[in-house]
Specification:
By secondary structure, this protein is mostly helical. It has 10 helices and no strands.
Length: about 250
C-alpha cells in the first residue's frame, strides 16, 4: 500500500510540475512607464515567450492591460511635453524612447501559414505609438538645433531642420507600405490601419504644413489604386485631399 501511495504522490508532483507555467512580470502598477521599464518589458515580450505561447493581446481580458501600457502615448508625452524640463533633457528622453520603439516593432510581426498577421491590431498599435512619438522626437531635435545655433535663420540651420522634417515624412511612408500587405490583416486590423492614417498623418501635416509632401502624395495615390479595402481607401483619399488643400494655401 505504501508503495502505491508514494507512486500516486509522485504522479501528482509530476503533473503539477508539468502544468506549471512561467509568469511574465510587467510594471503594471506604475502610472507611466519610463525607458527602463520599456527596456525590461520589450526584452520580456521579445524573448521571454515560447514559440507556441500566446503573447498579450487586446482580445485577452487578462493580458490586454499589458498591450495598453506598452502602447500608451502618455508614457512619452508626460516628459516630452513638459515645458518645465529643458529641451536637451526632453530630447535625450525622446531619443531613448525612439530606440525602444525600434525594438518594440519586432514583438508582434509573426504570421501564420497563410501569411496572415497573428497580432495585427497589436502590431499596428505599436506602429502608431511610433508615429506619435516621432512627432515629438523630431520637433524636439529641431528645437534644440535652433536653440543652440548662433544664427537660427542661417541657411545651414534651415537646411538641417528641413532635412530632419524630410526624414520624418519618409519614416511615415513606411507605415503606408503596410497597405501592400492588407490581405494579411483582419477587418479589424484594416480599420485600425486606416485610423492611424486619419489621426497621425493629419497631425504631421498640421505640424509641418509647408513641408514637401509630394512623395507622400505619390505613395498615397499608388496605394489607393492598389488597395481593395473599403476601410483603407477612404483614409487615403482624405490624406490626398489634405495634402492638396495645403498646397492650394501656399
Amino acid at each position: 500500500m505504501k508503495l502505491i501511495k508514494y507512486a500516486f504522490l509522485a504522479i501528482i508532483c509530476l503533473t503539477l510540475t508539468n502544468c506549471k507555467t512561467e509568469e511574465h512580470e510587467f510594471p503594471l502598477d506604475k502610472r507611466y512607464w519610463d525607458t527602463a521599464d520599456y527596456d525590461k518589458a520589450v526584452l520580456e515580450l521579445r524573448y521571454g515567450y515560447k514559440d507556441d505561447e500566446k503573447k498579450p493581446t487586446f482580445d485577452n481580458p487578462e493580458t490586454r492591460i499589458i498591450v495598453e501600457k506598452l502602447t500608451d502615448h502618455q508614457n512619452y508625452k508626460v516628459v516630452l511635453e513638459d515645458k518645465e524640463l529643458g529641451i536637451k533633457h526632453r530630447n535625450d528622453v525622446a531619443t531613448a524612447f525612439f530606440n525602444e520603439w525600434k525594438d518594440m516593432n519586432q514583438i508582434y510581426t509573426a504570421t501564420d501559414r497563410k501569411d496572415k498577421y497573428l497580432y495585427d491590431k497589436e502590431m499596428l498599435a505599436v506602429w502608431q505609438f511610433g508615429l506619435g512619438l516621432q512627432l515629438g522626437y523630431f520637433k524636439l531635435g529641431n528645437d534644440q538645433i535652433l536653440e543652440s545655433a548662433d544664427d537660427p535663420n542661417s541657411s545651414r540651420v534651415k537646411n538641417q531642420v528641413n532635412s530632419n522634417v524630410s526624414t520624418l515624412i519618409k519614416n511615415y511612408l513606411i507605415y503606408l507600405d503596410e497597405i501592400n500587405n492588407e490581405n494579411a490583416f483582419t477587418e479589424e486590423g484594416k480599420s485600425k490601419l486606416a485610423e492611424g492614417i486619419d489621426k497621425f498623418f493629419s497631425e504631421l501635416i498640421e505640424l509641418y504644413p509647408n513641408a514637401n509632401y509630394s512623395g507622400m502624395e505619390n505613395k498615397a495615390n499608388l496605394m489607393l489604386k492598389k488597395s481593395q479595402s473599403g476601410k483603407i481607401k477612404p483614409s487615403l483619399s482624405k490624406l490626398i485631399e489634405l495634402i492638396n488643400s495645403k498646397k492650394s494655401q501656399e
